[in-house]
Design goal:
By secondary structure, the chain is an alpha/beta fold. The protein is built from four helices and seven strands.
Length: about 160
């Protein structure tokens, strides 16, 4: 499934729509180049969970920021991760498989440590302020999740 966003406001709204259907234990992977809109989408998801978007910044220098909202939001950014084993000391599994929602920017850096099931959102620039968001569900639970907010995203 693909969705086009023509503004930051639209990307934030898409994030809020996605958050309506998220449950504790869900894992969302955000793929895209620098400036593709990953953190903007993360801000929208956070807003939908009752977290101020201003509190959500790229956690690039600390790898993880935890936000309290309707559900805890574990926001990872692995841009500076050099090797997957560097995250092992962080105890990532405790976050990935917890009662919170896990949001990961630059998940490709995890390689073999990626979870088996997740919702992948690939963001790419289409024009100056336009982004294409491609949604890919891996696993039956995420296929159901994608089906739930597919209708909301069509509006």
């Amino acid at each position: 499934m693909k969705k086009v966003s023509n503004s930051v406001t639209s990307t934030l709204k898409i994030g809020r729509i996605i958050s309506r259907h998220l449950q504790p234990g869900d894992i969302i992977l955000l793929y895209g180049a620098l400036g593709a809109g990953k953190t903007v989408l993360a801000k929208g998801i956070a807003q939908g969970l009752g977290i101020s978007k201003d509190k959500v910044i790229s956690p690039t220098f600390v790898l993880l920021r935890v936000h309290k909202g309707k559900h805890p939001l574990h926001h990872f950014d692995f841009y500076r991760l050099k090797a997957p084993h560097d995250i092992l000391a962080l105890g990532y599994e405790e976050y990935f498989y917890s009662e919170g929602i896990t949001l990961i920017e630059w998940p490709e850096r995890l390689k073999f440590l990626l979870p088996k099931e997740f919702l992948k959102i690939k963001l790419s620039a289409k024009a100056a302020n336009s982004r294409v968001l491609e949604f890919i569900a891996r696993g039956p639970a995420y296929k159901r999740l994608l089906g739930k907010f597919n209708e909301d995203l069509r509006d």
